[in-house]
């Protein structure tokens, strides 16, 4: 084989592998290494290879030297080569003689629960919510408050009957979450949309509705426009609505939907609330909520993120 081909083909292979690795790790922040150095994962990040700041905790940036040493910058521009990271014991061992760094409590919910986002425009995600694909520690969120990022970086909440809703806003002080459905048509999934298995409730009052499929020339209130088609017009009547005047010959009852808010038929979004854990008072004080350390009964506490930052301390 021509010597130029022997050089080019491995180079192309490495290039392809590198591209694949980036695509797969964009949302998951994979474990990396500088050469044969220690594995690097959260709370650390390789700032030259992981531009997403959510891959690491503030102040825990490392980088690879031109010799593939793992470098940690210390105060007064001291550069230390990191030889070992004990994630379990929270200890970093650099090559400054007799100098060991102890990773002090990160402070945001059991050591590794920083505020995250799905993309730059997504709502901030913090306790009681957690991004389950990037925060495996279940103490980062309350049970039932798991979110995840879609391949398009939308923030996704799973509702009953496999409904995947996009989270557009989270008001932590009012304990309110605003969600939308793909194509802005929640009525597609209203059958069986009960929240009893989730820690959320509809904000607005609930009613039962009967849905009718009518001819397209039927002009009545309560039209569900996103369910209409060229051949049918769909109407949703409250269960206590007098339908005696409804032209039965041109309408056929489809099904009944129980316990949904009226705005589900006309609004592209839904407002959900949660009653517990009660963290709104923490947010009202400018603080953040988390589980108490060593709590076994899911008790929560308020803490000040500005006064409880993770640091590296020499011992």
From TrEMBL:
InterPro entries: ATL20-22-like, WAK_GUB
Transmembrane segments: none
E.C. number: 2.3.2.27
Keyword Secreted appears in the UniProt entry: no
Domain Wall-associated receptor kinase galacturonan-binding per the UniProt entry, residue ranges: 29-91, 113-179
Pathway participation: Protein modification; protein ubiquitination
Signal peptide as annotated in the record: 1-25
Recorded catalytic activity of this chain's protein: S-ubiquitinyl-[E2 ubiquitin-conjugating enzyme]-L-cysteine + [acceptor protein]-L-lysine = [E2 ubiquitin-conjugating enzyme]-L-cysteine + N(6)-ubiquitinyl-[acceptor protein]-L-lysine
PANTHER family the record matches: OS01G0116300 PROTEIN, RING/U-BOX SUPERFAMILY PROTEIN
Name of this chain's protein: RING-type E3 ubiquitin transferase
Organism: Quercus suber
């Amino acid at each position: 084989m021509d010597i130029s081909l022997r050089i080019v083909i491995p180079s192309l292979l490495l290039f392809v592998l590198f591209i694949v690795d980036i695509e797969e790790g964009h949302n998951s922040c994979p474990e990396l290494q500088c050469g044969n150095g220690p594995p690097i994962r959260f709370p650390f990040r390789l700032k030259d290879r992981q531009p997403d700041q959510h891959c690491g905790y503030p102040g825990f940036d490392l980088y690879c030297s031109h010799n593939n040493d793992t470098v940690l910058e210390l105060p007064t521009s001291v550069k230390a080569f990191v030889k070992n990271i004990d994630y379990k014991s929270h200890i970093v061992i650099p090559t400054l003689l007799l100098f060991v760094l102890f990773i002090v409590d990160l402070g945001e919910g059991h050591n590794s629960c920083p505020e995250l986002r799905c993309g730059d425009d997504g709502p901030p995600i913090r306790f009681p919510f957690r991004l389950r694909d990037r925060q495996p520690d279940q103490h980062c969120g309350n049970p039932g408050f798991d979110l995840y990022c879609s391949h398009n970086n939308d923030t996704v909440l799973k509702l009953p009957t496999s409904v995947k809703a996009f989270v557009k806003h989270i008001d932590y002080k009012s304990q309110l979450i605003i969600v939308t459905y793909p194509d802005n048509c929640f009525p597609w999934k209203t059958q069986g949309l009960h929240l009893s298995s989730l820690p959320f409730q509809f904000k607005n009052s609930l009613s039962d509705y009967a849905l009718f499929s009518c001819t397209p020339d039927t002009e009545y209130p309560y039209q569900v426009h996103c369910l209409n088609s060229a051949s049918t017009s769909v109407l949703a009547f409250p269960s206590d609505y007098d339908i005696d005047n409804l032209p039965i010959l041109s309408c056929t009852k489809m099904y009944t939907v129980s316990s949904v808010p009226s705005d589900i038929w006309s609004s592209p979004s839904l407002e959900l609330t949660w009653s517990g854990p009660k963290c709104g008072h923490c947010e009202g004080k400018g603080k953040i909520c988390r589980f108490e350390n060593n709590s076994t009964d899911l008790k929560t506490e308020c803490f000040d993120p500005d006064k409880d930052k993770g640091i590296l301390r020499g011992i």
